[in-house]
Amino acid sequence: LDLAKAAEGLRLAGARLLGRADEAVPTVRVARGDLDLSVHTTGELRSARSAMIAAPAVAGTLQIVRLAPSGTPVKAGDLVVEFDPSEQEFTVEQSRSELEEAEQELVRSRAEAEVQAAEDQVALLKARFAVRRAQLDLAARDLLGAIEVRKNELTLEESERRLAQLEEDLKSKATSRRAAVAVLEAKRDKARLALAAAQQNIENMTLRSPIDGIVVLRPNVDASGGMFYSGMTLPDYRTGDLVWQGRLVAEVLDTSGIELQAKVDEADRANLEAGQAAEVRVDGLPGGVFTASVGTVSGAASRGFFDSESRRKFDTTLQLTAPDERLRAGLSASVVISGEQLKDVLYVPRQALFEEDGKPVVYARRGSGFVPTPVKVRFRSESRAVVEGVEAGAELALVEPGEGGKGARRRAPAGAAPGRGGAR
Asked: What is the pLDDT of residues 148-162, one digit of tens each?
């Protein structure tokens, strides 16, 4: 009798321990009903069209002498930034002087070439005359002795040789003169191009807006001396700042078209399509609700350099249906994108989904333990997932039994493999 009582006491104590192990695993039941796949996110208003105002490509640094402040409304052609043109004006004067010098050298070289060409023609005529005279002297050989005839023959040969040599030399001299003139012409053209480039640079010192909009000054990335760290605040460009060529100084935002740039989680990417309706609530305009539609959804995930989240985000652009003049680029907003309304589906919390061998599973209660059960995920929302493979009302673990209820894992039926994935 005593042994029976002791055994019963041990059985009851074991049941209480097992019950506490079961209670250590939080559970939820599979529900059936309607599910809204709306996507909630935040974004920022931006101009649908903008114009970049960058420092011109000029050697050296540029100094700002005039600058339109941020928020200044401008029309197309209005001045936005003006740089000090002193250095370029000096370059213009220097290039003009070099051009005039090159033109004078070219005039002198052409005049000398003409004089030399005339002298060469005179020398050529003399050489031809000498040949002709030697030919005439040789023609009277019947009246002269053998010695005189031989002398005339040698004279003719020498005259003909000199004429041939002179003709070859004149060709070389003409080529040299043309080359010298071509060099001076190239020097003149170079000086002319340098002058035109300097004059164009002076015009580029004044940057005007190509569109109507509002001026937004950009941060001066050189203000910190080239050092930058996360969270650092840089001042905007101001009058008197030095700017390197190509630096983005300002931006003109077209206020006639405003769109919303947002990022959606990778789990919500499948629930978005172009044309879906959305509601936008701008933080700076409390109480106002604006309608919009999804314009484009990026096909590739993006993540910033300093992002610490492991989940990737997808860039999404929304077009406002009826833009309001109170909306300004840079304002933050919350967005609700209307998704598909699913009727009479089985769904579970996202925390009840795990992965095993790369496939989604849930831990369903079976007897006193939990068994990993493969499921097919049809849709996912921010907090819930529509699944197939389990029955309505089935009790599922919200944590992996191996983590929250070791006793439950020990009491799982034979052949039930423990889950290896974490909650998603």
From this structure: 878 878 888 888 888
